[in-house]
Each structure stands twice: as C-alpha cells, then as structure tokens.
Amino acid sequence: MAAGDPYVQGAWVWIPDCAEVWKVAEITRGYKEGDAILHLRLEDGSALAYPIESQLPPLCNPECLSGADDLVALSYLHEPAVLHSLRRRFLEAKAIYTYCGIILVAINPYEPLPLYEEEVIHAYSGREMGDMDPHIFALAEEAYKQMVRFGKNQSLIISGESGAGKTATAKYAMRYFTTVGGCLGNSSIEEKVLASNPVMEAFGNAKTTRNDNSSRFGKYIEIGFSHARVTGATIKTYLLEKSRVTFQAKAERNYHIFYQLCASAALPELRGLGLCGAEFFHYTRQGQCTASHSTEDEADLDSTRHACSLLGVPEAEQIELFSILAAILHLGNVVVRGRDRRGDSCFVEAADEALGLFCTLLGVEALQVTRWLCHRKLVTAGETFLKPLSRQQALESRDALAKYMYGQVFRWIVSKVNRALWSLEGHCTSIGILDIYGFEMFELNSFEQFCINYANEKLQQLFNLHVFKLEQEEYVTEEIPWVFVDFCDNQPCIELIEGRLGILDLLNEECKVPQGNDGSWAQKLYQTHLTSSHFQKPKRPMDAFVVCHFAGKVEYQCDGFVEKNRDAVPEELVGLLRASKSALLMELFLEEGSGPTSLQSRRSSGHWVPTRPSRRSLPRSRKSKKSISSQFKTSLHCLMETLGSTTPHYIRCIKPNDAKLPFVFDSRRAVEQLRACGVLETIRISASGYPSRWTYQEFLERYRALLSREELMGTDEKQICSLALERLLQDPSKYRCGKSKVFFQAGQVAHLEALRCQQLRAACTLLQRHLRGWLARRRLGRARAAAICLQRHARGMLARSFVRMLRRTRAAVVLQKALRMALARRSYLQLLRAVITIQAFTRGMFARRLHRQMVWQQKAVVIQAAVRGWLARSHYARLRGAIILLQSCYRRLRARRELQQLRVQARSVEHYKQLHKGLEIKVIQLQCRLDEQAQEKQRLLERLSRLNAAHAEEVQHLRDEMQQLREDVAREAQVQKLQERLAELERQHAKSCLAQEVEELRQRLAEVEGMKLQLGKERDALIQRTLEQSQDLEEQHQRSARESQGLRQELEEERARYQSLVQEYTRLEQGYENLRDELALHRQSTLRRSPSTESFMGSESSYLSSMSTAPSRDGSDKQAEASGDTGGGSEELQPQPSSEVLLNGSVGQNPFGKAYLLLLGQLSAANEELARTREKLRRSKEPVEREERKPLDFLKRRNIVEMLGLGRSPGKVAAEEDLKHAYDAVQVANRLLASQLREEKQQHEEEVEGLQLDIRSLKQLNQQQAALIQDLQRQQGQEGLQHHVLQLKEENWELAQKLEKQERTTLKLQKQLRAYAKQIQELSVKRDAAGPVQELAASPMVLSLAGLSQAMLPWKMEDEGRIIKAIITDYEPQGSPWSLPDLPAYILFLCFRHADHCCDEPRARSLLDAAMDAIKRVMKKHSDNFDVVALWLANTCRLLNCLRQYSQDESYGQGNTARQNQHRLQNLDPQSSCCSLGALAVHLYQQLIRTAEKRLKPMIVAAMLESEPIQGLSSSCPPGPHRSSAAPAHTLPELLQVLGSFRASLDHHGLAPSVGHQALRQLLFLISGTTLNYLLLRKDTCSWSRGIQLRYNISQLEQWLRAEGLQQSGACEVLEPLVQAAQLLQVKKVTEEDAGALCSLCTVLSPQQVVKILQAYTPAAGLEERVSPSFISRVEKQLQEQYGEGPSQLLVDTSHLFPVHLPFTASPLHLDELHIPDALDLGFLFHP
User: Higher confidence at residue 484 or residue 147?
Assistant: First the structure.
C-alpha cells in the first residue's frame, strides 16, 4: 500500500494552528506523490492550500476511536490525536481521567464532582482495571491487587504543574487504600494516615499565582501493608521551599499556618503570642494577598489542631509550636537601622517591640540577640574578633535565621507524623505515593527550579526505561520479532547535572571557596560545558545558563545559587536558640546535625529520635556541612532506588487553564504539559512498534463483515485472522500475529475501519435497494387496489341513488297510512286510560274500608288474649309464693332444732374454754408482732425522711451555685425564675420531711399525684407539640415522594428501636415480678408444710373451719397478690413513657439530652444490679425450701383426712376420739399459722433489705447526678437546673411509689391476720367434715401433671438445655424430611403452653430467651447459608404467630376452630415475648437479605451488562487495550436460577408469601441499583446496542416475575430506573423535541444520572452522531426546571433496606395432632 493512499478525497487531517495548536481540515482533492500542495477545506467552509514541506499532515482517527478510554488504542498515534481525545472527553463527556498506556492522565476540573463517594470506592474495589472507566481508584485498585497477588511493593508516581491537582489525587489514593485495605490491629491508623494531610498542607502548602493550595515540597508517602491490611505509613519529604518564609511574590502568600494563626489570634490560648492580623507582619504581607477566597484560615486551624491531636501532639506542645511560629513572624518585624551613611555597621533598638516579643516567646536574652544580629565572630588561630555587619547583611542574617527555624519546625512536624504512623509490627509489603513537583519553566528560574527539573529528569529516565521494558515484555510474551526502538534517552542531560565536574560539582566547589560568588561559578560553567549539546550560554550578557531538558530549554539565572546552596546561618544565633528555656526549641536545635545543611537529609528519612546533646561539644566546622544540592542529590538517588524496587504506576495531572475556570480547556497549555510530563514520549514509543493490539476473538467479532465465506468456514481463529489480513492488508510488515493477539502498526486499524465502513455501506445500499423495490411494488399494488375500490364504490353509489328514488315514491303512501293509524290509535288510548283510572280509584276506596274493619277486629282479639294471660300468671305466682313460704318455715324449724342440738353438744365440752384462752394468747402475740413490724416501718419512714433531708441539702447547695451563676451572668429575669422553682422544690421537700405519721404520708402522696398529673399534662403538651411539628413537616414535604418515603422509613426504624427498648425494660421488670411471684408461691406452700413447736388448745369446729377455708383463702390471696403485683408493675411502668416523651421532646432542644440519657442508663444499671442480688437470694433459698418441703410431701402422701379421722362415720366413732382428733387438728392449724407468720415476717425483712439497697443505689445515683450537674452548670446553668428538677421529680415519684408499695404490704399482712382470726371464730360454728375434705381434694395446689391437656409437652427447668440442643442447636431438617419445616416452633410453643398451664412465667420466659439465644448462635455459625437462615426465619415467624393465635387477643383468634380455642393460653400474657420475637424475626430477615446479596453481587454485572443474549450487537464499539475480552463469568439464566432457588427455599420453609415478595423486591432493588451504578461508571456500556441488550435482560426478569406470580409484589417498580436508563440509551437524541420527550421519559432517574449517561453515550460508528454538548445542556436545563436544583445523588445506595412487614398467618394445624419424630431424641418429654 502506497504512502499516499490514505490521503484521498474526503479524508480528514490535522494542520497546525496558532490559537488551537491543531485544527481539523478535510481533503478536497486526493493527494498524489510529488504534489507540493494539499487542497483542504476547513470546518468553517473556507478553502486552504496547505504546502507540503517535509511530511504530510497527520491523519484523523475514525469516529469510533475518537474519545477512547485509552489513547494507545488510537489508530493514528500523534500529538493532535491525543490532544483532541483529551479535549473531547473533558468537554463533552466530562471525563477527567484517561489512560495513556501505563499512564493515567488526570485533568483538573476545578469543581467538585460526585466521583469519590464511598459507593464509587466499593464499585471499583475488586474489579479489573479495564472493567470500569478510567479513574484514580482503578489505578489504585490495580496497584493494591498486584501487591496482594505477587507480594511486590508498588508505587504511584503523581506529577504535574502547580495547580494540576496532584495533592488532591494523592488524597484520593490514600483514602482508597485506607478504605479497601482497612486496618490491622489498630483502627486509628486509617484516621492518622488521613489526618496527616491537613498537617502537612498547613506547614508545607501555600498560595501561588497558579494554585491556592500549592505544595512547596515533594513527598513520598509509603503505606505499609500486612496481610492486605494497612499497618502504618511513613512520609519522606524533599526540598522544602524555605525562601517563601521570608519573601513572597505578588499575589502569593506564605505558608498556610502563619495565616491560620493570625486569623485565630483572638483565641484565649493564643492571646499571649502577641499575634494580630496578617497585614501587620512583614513575612506575611509582601505578596499583598493576606486572604484567600478558597480557604477559611480560622476553620483550617481547628482542622490542623484536631489532626495534630490525632497524631499524638499534645495540646501543650501545640501551643509551644505556635509560639515558635509566632516568634518567626515577630522576627520579621525587627527593624535594623544603619549607624552611619556608609552602612558599615548597624544596630537594633533595645525598645523594639517585635524583638521583645521574639525573645519572650523563645526564652532568650534580647541583648544577645541584638548583638549577634548586628555582628559576626571571626575566629583566627589565636584571637577572636567581632566584625560589625552592614544593615543589608544583618537583614540577610535575620532572614536566614527565620528560614532555618521554620525548616527545623517542618522537620520536627514530619518526624512527629512518622512516629504516629509507624507500627511496631512492621509491614510485609507497601505502596508508595510520590507527590512530586512537575517540570517548571518560568520567566525567572532559580536554584529551586533547577533542582525540581533535575528530579524530573531522573523520573523521566526511569519512566522511559519502564515503558521500554513493558513493550519488550509484551512482544516477547506474544513471540513477536522485536526490533530495538530508539527512544530519547536523557542520560547526557543527567550527566551534565550530576556527573563529574557537572553543574552540581562546580556549584559545591564554589560554595567551599571563601569568597565564592555566583559570577565566578557562571564563568566556570561556561569554560567547562559550552561544548556540551545540552548546555548553552544565553546571548544576553548576564550570569545565566541554558539547559536542554527533555521537555525543552530552560534558562536559569545564576543569582542566588551559591547562597541558597550553602544555606548558611550564624552559629552564634543558633547557639542562643539552643540555650533557650523552651524544651521544644532545644529539641529543634540539637547539636547533632545542627547545621542547616544536614536537615534536608533527615527530612527524607523515616523516623528520627532526638537525643540531648552535650553542652561542651564544639560547633562543627564549615567543611563538614553538606550543601543543599548534595543532600538533594543523595535523597534523589535513594528515591530512584526505592522506585526501582517497586512496580510503578504513573499519574500525570494536567492543568486545563490558568484562570482556574471549571471545564475550560486551553489547548496550548495542555500541549505544553503533555510534552513536559512524558505522555507524548509514551505515545511515540508505542507508535514506533505495533500500538494497536486485538485478540483474535475481538478481531473476528469486529471485522466479521470483511471475512469471506471460505474464511468463516475455518475453526482456528488465528488461521482465520491470518488469511483475512493477508487479503486485506497485503503487506506483512504492517501487522504481526502473536500467540493470542494480532498487532497492527499505526494507521492500519483506521484502514480496516474504512474497509469495514465501505462493506457496511455496500450492505446498506443493497438492503436499501431491495427495500425500495419492495416499497415501490407495494405502492403499485395499493394504487391498483384503490382504483378498483373506487370503481366499485362509484357503481354502488349510482345504484343506491336509484333505489332511494323508488323508495321515496312508495314512502309517501306508507306515511299517509301510518299517520291516519296513529291519530286513531291516540284517541283510543286516551279513552282507555281514563276508564282504567276511574276503576282504580273505586276499587281502592272499597279495599280501604274492608281493611279498617279487619284491623278493628284483630285488636280486640289481642286485648282479650293479653288480659287472660295476665290473670293466669297472677294466680300462678300467688300459689307459688305460698308454697315457697311453707317450705321456708318448715326448713327454718328444722334448722333451729338442729342448731339447739349443736349448742348443747358444744356446751358439753369442758376444755373448750381453755382452748379459747390459748387462742386469745396467740392473737395477742400476733398483735405484738404486728406492732414490732409497725415500729420497723416507722424506722424506715425516718430513714426516708433523712434521705429527703439529704435531698434538701443538695438542693440548698444547688441554690448556692445558682446564686454564684447569677452574680457571674447578671441575668436577673432568669435567676428569678430559677429562685421560684427552687422555692417550690424546697416547699415540696419540707413537706416530705414532716411526713412522720400516716395521715401526713397520705397528704404527701396526694401532692405527688398532683405532680404526676402536672407531668402528664407536660407530657401531653410535648406530645401535642411533637404532633404539630410532624404535621408541619408532612405538609412541607408532601410534594416529594422520596422524602416522604424516607420519613416513613425513619419512623418505622424509630418505632422498632422504641419497641426494642420497651421490650428490654419490660423484660427486666417482668423478671422482678417473677421473683416476687416465686416468693409468694413459696409462702403459700410453707403454710401447709412448716412444722411448729407451739401448741394451743382448740376445738374441732375451728380446725374444720380453717381447713375448709384455707384453700379458698389462699387462692383469693394469691389472686389479690397477683393483681397487686400487676398493679404495682403497671404503676412502675407508668413514668417510663412520660420520661421518654419528655426526653424525645427535649433532646432536640436541650443540650443536656445526652446527660439525661446517661443518668437513665445508670438508673437502669442500678435496677439490674438489684435484680441480680435478689436472684442470688432466691437461689440460696432453694436448698432450704427443699428441706422444708419434705414434711409437706409426707403430709400429701398420707391422706390428711385419714390421719385426723374426719372421713369416719359419726356413728362408728366415739365423742372422745372426735375431741382428740379435733385437738390434734387445731395444733396442726396453729403450726401452719405460725409458719406463715414467720414467712410473712421474713418476706417483710427481705423487702426492707431491698428498699435499703434501693436507697443506697439512689444515694450513689444522686451523688453522680450532682457531680454531673455541677459540670454541666459551668456551661449553661438554666437548662441544667431544669434537667435536675425533672430528675428530682422523677426520684420523688419513685420514692412515693415505694412507700405506697410498703403500705400495701403492711395492709395485706393485717388483712391476712384478720382473716385468720375470723376463720378461728367461724370454726366454732361449723362441724361438717365433708366440706373441707372435698375442698382439700379439689385444691389446685395438689394437682399433678396427669390433669394437663394433651396439646402441651410437660417439661422441667433442668430439661431446658436438652430441648434447645435437640430442636435448635443440633436440628437437621434434612435428616427428618417427614417433619414440618417449622416443627421446632410448634415444639417450643407446646412447652410454652405447659408453662402457661402451670402459671410458671419465669420458666416460659427463660425457655424463649434460651431459644432466641440459640437461634442467634446458629445464625452466627451459618451466616452464609441461605437455607439455614430461611429455616429459622420461618420458625421464628411461626412461633410468633402461634403466640398471637393462641393468646387472649380476639383479633388474632377470629379464624380459630373450636378445638384450637380450647388450647388458648390462660395465665400468661405473651405480649413482651412477641415483641422480642418480632425483633429477632426482623434481624433474621436482614441476615437473609445480606446472605442473598453476597451470592448475587458477583453475578449482577456479568449477567445484566456483560452477557450477550442477542449476538452480534456488541461489536459496534471496539474494545480498548485494558478491556477484558474473556466471556462473562455469569449469565442471566444463572442469575434467574439463583433467584428461583431463593424463592423455592422460602416456599419450602413455609414463609408467608408476602415475606418472600418483600425479599425478592429487595434483591431486585440490589440488581437494579448495582447495574445502574456500573452503567454510570462504565463508558463502554452507554451505547445503543448495550441498551438493547439491557432492555432484553430486564424483559427476561419481568417475564420471570410474571411466571412466578410476583408482578404485584412491587418488584417491577424497583426495576423502573433501569428500564428508563435502557430506554434513554435507545431514544433519539438530536432535536429539541427529543430533549422534551427524553425529560418526560426519565421520571425516576435523577438529573445528574441522565446527564452522566448522555455524556458517556458512545454512538455506533457510521450509524449515529455523537450527542452534542448543546443537547446535553438543554436536557440538563429542562430537568432542573422540572425537578429543581436540589442535591441529587449520582449512584444508587444499594445498601438501603426497605422496611419489612411480617404478617400474621394463623396455623391450620391442631396442636394435639402434632407428630414428633423419634429422630429428634425428645424421649424425656412425654404426652400426659
């Protein structure tokens, strides 16, 4: 192929331009070899004759390659193509990152972009470099992945001009590594690594003309990793620009830290530094720019101090550091005056204010400082002289000292940062981030620019070698013949700078000369290097030289080189600072390395541990000091060695314009930076070989249209490609076939694209020809059919008109006939209606008369029947009353006779009176015991009064503190209110202190009730206010559906948290009630089993009465005590909601809300400690109770009736035996009464101990509250007092409740004592023994388990662990396929029913708690098993539904059968258990979703975006070199199969269909959100063909939903954003109407997402046009008008969880029909 073949008519070329560097033109006449002019047409239509000198203009790339992600993928690799691709991506697609081989080009957008959120980091994490769009995170992920895979250190080399975004890029890379790598062992390492940025920026960054936050030093951050986790970091710095401390150019500033201190001079801790505004200091006002619009100095100082604190710099050291910085500022204001006109000597006034502040802050003598500022010490062999300095020399000495001090401060800051970031365990691998200055070329270039360009020469050499090495490795791997590519080697330039007798050597030699200066050094350079090709002498007569760098020629001015290289500072001034009283200053100016030239070397080293020098050590000689250039050269060589041992990754930052305007691209500035940073050199190296590289599969997919039929018949892809290329390219040197890729020279891909376009055009022409012929034939057929149709209709019209004429003739006759008939019929019908009307009225009149007669007759019959019935009933009632009266009289007579007989029998007993005497003595003793208990109660009341007095003292102390607060603040109105509240509080406590009698206690309780009502009113007011505020918020946000949905979600979450808190509080309170119930049961059982040594005389009737009434009394007492305990529990729970309401209403406004939460937590902890103490007491009593239960068991085993002889017949037993047995029965009753009294007294003592414990805990809590309130009052007194008053009110209310509870206990004891006395009196009347025997037999206390229903499983407390292990821990549903999936839930409920039958609430609650804990342990062990999580979610829901279905709540039991209603719970309320199970079910549902997400996430992108169900569409855009050509790992059928398995598992385990619908809706939201996120982050997926594929995949998902019957589950709605994105890729995007239709289409997508898709849209080559920027701006404007300019999120938050609703589903299974398989090993449980 000839060289001029591409330059045909219609081809586009690039020509140079002065303004745009390069501009495009179209060839109007084909080029022939030998032509001197190329005829072109510019974009504006003008013609141009372009003269051809040495070479033809570069060709343009095809449209499909323009704007590629990787510049190496361009067919024509040259400067205009690179520039055009970068400009198009930056301006049209808003893409700031572009690959260029191994380089990532980053263009500064100068505005924040949503590209660095947490979601973006997770999206790039774990992805290959070519799978996503170019990004700093992609390069960071590649470095991290190579480090983890190969265990080799990596490095990120970031370079660019000032203002190009190097520092921000380094920040994002560090944030990515700390986020993905996490931390190992120390979670604060991540924070410290990120906190080092603001510290280093404050001390090392400054505002320049090009950048408001320019780094004035180079740094290398090495992040250490161990086991892929961050363990620490180190920072090495290079060449700090110390000259900026003393001089700033116009519109520039000093380092940020100085302005931060000046802006914060009003802070209390900085007032002693003598600071003021930055415009008052010489070192900060020279640039005439003391303020920056892009920074806030005062806020930045807070960030700097916070970062220093995180890095381990204490507050004292920070203040001392700020003192040194302030001293530097004051040093700049020291005025040096000349003594005479000649200026040979100078002086500083002793009264100089700046000098005084400088000496005061540093702790040095002002006289010594003045002396050594104006003199210099000369040491000879035998004498020492003081040489006066001129004013200029003194000023230079002052500035040198300031620069030296700041350099030492910067070195100390770096060492502090390294100490904080260092990890003791070290690291295995590391990733280094080099934030280095780019190539600089200004109008005036000095020593700093020379060192910077020297470093860039070294980095460019390393870069060239690395690129060359990668190219060579690629060719060797593919077995391509390698031809050495000669690239521009800058080794001669480096030798010129650092070689023997180079520029640096001559500079160091000149610095050693005593009188060395810049002029003599320049002359040495001219004499030595004028023969070098990289060294030139400027034409102007001045001390300067020119170095030909790789990026261009740079002219350096020699002025200042020697002085800056020496970096000398007077040793006398350094000695003064070293003798300072400041510890930090002594640390900064140590003898070791005290010379300023040794500091730079230490600046680049990692850790440096200071050591105290010897005061007698002599200062070093000047010969031992290393120059700045030597230090920099050494550190640069170390850096090159470090980088050489790592795998480098290059990031070149480009500054698009100098005005810092967002998305404005200056081509001239961009080309300069591309040339300087080595991007074009990379392009040149790549273009010299085979830059275009395609895999065989990609080539076949792309160019299948160019292959012949015979070539397509082959099976070997490599052979097919070789045959096709031989035919298409003909020249074998234009391509090479490797092992897996085919390599093309520059321009060959463009030629293949042109051939492909021609083939596709020919195919389109053929299709159009056939289509147009078919359309013409179709039009002809339609025209012929239309003519025939017209003829048919015309003939039909004529025939119809003839027929109409005939019909009109006959219609006249018909109309006359019909009219006459109608008139006759009308008159007939009128007559008929009149006759019918008369008949109707007549018949109605007769019918009404007949009806009235029948009604009268019927009423008479009814009256007669009623009267007769009343007479009969009256007679019957009188007769019945008479009979009842006779029966009553007769029975009364019989009863009186029987009573007389009983009285005679009672008087015949002689010892009955003695028995009564014994009972009276017993009653007296009982009354004495009651008096003792009343005295104990009085002592308790006195203790409570002392506690109230202590409260009063605390309030008095609080009032004193408030008095002091009033004197300080002088707010009389607020203090008056506080005094009124204090007076009210004092009155309340004074009343409580006088409560010594019962009547006064009742008055105090009434006051407390009033206070309770007042708090209730306040609570209602707060609730009302909260409701009003919520209504206002709902009215304000009712237009936004998303925000309202978010509010509903937050409400549900808050409700769930509130329910969990209430549940926890209820559980603790219920545990306390359970303990009291157990004590009550113990007391009742002791009534029947405790023996007694006391014996009293009694009668048979008293024993019978006591035995007959004891069971009923016990039951009544038990019920009364249960109701009392329940009431007490409810009263104790009453203040909890009110306090929560007060808290919720005041936390948002009261700053002490957190303190109040802390106090509530302490109170809860005290209650829990009290409950644990009582539990220990209960457990210690269990062995004693077992010993005391033995006599009762013996009594139960032997029938008590037979023991006493009460079951015998009166005729068979003599009277003496009856009296004996009665006496024994009275003794037993007395023993039981005495035992019960002891138990009551013991319980009373336990309650007293509990109250004492409560009092001690309350005292401790009050002390904590007082301490906390005192701390809070120092900040804001009024709110703290209000909070304390509320706490005191609550405490008073609780104390009142405890007093009331104690009174109830005393009243209950008195009531029981009166009941016992009454029973003894009643026993003297009754003698029937059958009654007590029957009642004793019917007592519920002696029922055995044989009386239980069959719908329960009897179990004991010790069986709890075995039950949990059998049905939860070791449960395997696969081993028992015949059982129900939710069988464990049914078994647990059967056990719960048994506990309910036994009224054993603690046992039931313990079982459920153990079950929930076991389920959580199983979930923790099998958290990744979806089937296990679904199994226990189903069982939890089933147990929850069973508790609701069989509870007493009628709303859940409406669908129960009669048998199911018989199995309802009778004694226990499962409400609190339902709350706990509901929370566990929600947790299991969330775990289920997380488990499914872990399995789905790796499949989503491959199945939804990368798979190709429609073959042949993906070849519309060629893949880049970073894109993976492998087949997708997963397909859509696999994804649907996984979803189907999830659905089948949920159905198999019996979950409610609505729960499955919600789970699938959540999973489809994950699929939709993840797919949309990757669509937004991948430019290659935004095309028409990919939209077709995506829409097809979505339709497959929707079809699957319809097949599964899930179309109404809400899953289709979550797919709507993805549907709209797919439609957006397919619609037309050209005209204004298209923009309006597009905006009406995208109702769910955010404006930011729509604009991002349009910017990333890639048109099909030759078939579509690129979306114009004007169209995108028009769409963006319409979307903003439609949706407003509110903040919108680019990426979807896939971690969002929809609130779940667990419905109630009643179980159709009957509990008594449940079958428990033997495999569960539950033989220890038995059915009764």
Answer: 147
Burial 969-986 (b: 16+ CB within 10 A, else e): eeeeeebeebeebbeebe
- Are 419 and 232 in contact, with CB atoms under 8 Å apart? no
What is the C-alpha to C-alpha distance for residues 672 and 161, in angstroms, rounded to an integer? 10
Could you report the per-residue pLDDT of 953-992, keeping only the tens digit for each? Answer: 777 777 777 677 667 666 666 656 766 777 777 667 666 5
In whole angstroms, give the CA distance from residue 1596 to residue 1539. Answer: 13
Nearest to 91 by CA among 671, 665, 657: 665
pLDDT tens digits for range 795-830: 999 999 988 888 888 888 888 889 989 999 999 999
What beta strand segments (E) does 655-739 contain?
692-695, 735-737
Asked if 147 contacts 158 with a C-beta cutoff of 8 angstroms, the reply is no
Cα–Cα distance, 713 to 699 (Å, whole number): 16
Check: CB of residue 417 under 8 Å from CB of residue 200.
yes
Cβ pair 206, 252 in contact under 8 A: yes
Read off the pLDDT band of 1118 (50, 70, 90).
very low
Cα–Cα distances (Å) from 520 to 545, 561, 568, 1597, in that order, read 13, 11, 19, 82
Nearest to 98, CA basis, from 650, 790, 848: 650
Question: pLDDT over 90 for what percent of the chain?
Answer: 11
Count Cβ atoms within 10 A of the Cβ of residue 890 and give its class: 0-12 exposed, 13-18 middle, 19 or more buried.
exposed
Q: How far is it, in rounded angstroms, from Cα 1005 to Cα 1293?
A: 9
Mean pLDDT rounded to a whole number for the chain: 76
Amino acid at 1274: R
**CB 193 within 8 Å of CB 147:** no
Q: Report the b/e string of 320-334 with b at 16+ CB within 10 A.
A: bbbbbbbbbbbbbbb
From the list 18, 87, 673, 735, the residue with the least C-alpha distance to 681 is 673
Rounded CA separation 1137/139 (Å): 55
Do the beta carbons of residue 1393 and residue 1401 sit within 8 Å? no
Residue whose structure tokens are 């210099």: 376
Percent of the chain with pLDDT over 70: 71
Nearest to 650 by CA among 104, 42, 1217: 104
- CA–CA distance, 334 with 347 (Å, rounded to integer): 11
For residue 1453, give every residue at least 6 positions away whose Cβ sits within 8 Å of its Cβ, in sequence order, or none.
1445, 1446, 1447, 1460, 1461, 1464
In the structure encoding, which two tokens stand for residue 729, read together?
A: 């390219």
Cα–Cα dist 328/355, whole Å: 11
Task: Spell out the alpha helix ranges (H) of 125-210.
Answer: 136-150, 166-181, 189-204
With residue 1704 as reference, give the H or E element that holds it. Answer: none
pTM for this prediction: 0.60
Confidence of residue 1193 (pLDDT cuts 50, 70, 90): very low
Backbone angles phi, psi at 985, to 5 degrees: -65, -35
Letter string b/e over residues 147-177, b meaning 16 or more CB atoms within 10 A of that residue's CB: beeeeebbbbbbbbbbbbbbbbbbbbbbbbb
Band of pLDDT at residue 1069, cut at 50, 70 and 90: low
> What was the pLDDT predicted at 1063?
61
747-760 pLDDT, tens digit per residue, is: 677 778 778 877 88
Cβ atoms of residues 138 and 99 within 8 Å: no
Give the pLDDT confidence score for residue 135 in this predicted structure.
Answer: 92
Q: Given this model, what pLDDT does residue 1567 score? A: 92
Asked if residue 1385 lies in contact with residue 1705, where contact means CB atoms within 8 angstroms, the answer is no
Lowest-pLDDT range of 649-653, 998-1002, 1116-1120, 1636-1640: 1116-1120
DSSP codes of every residue in 1107-1134: HHHHHHHHHHHHHHHHHHHHHHHHHHHT
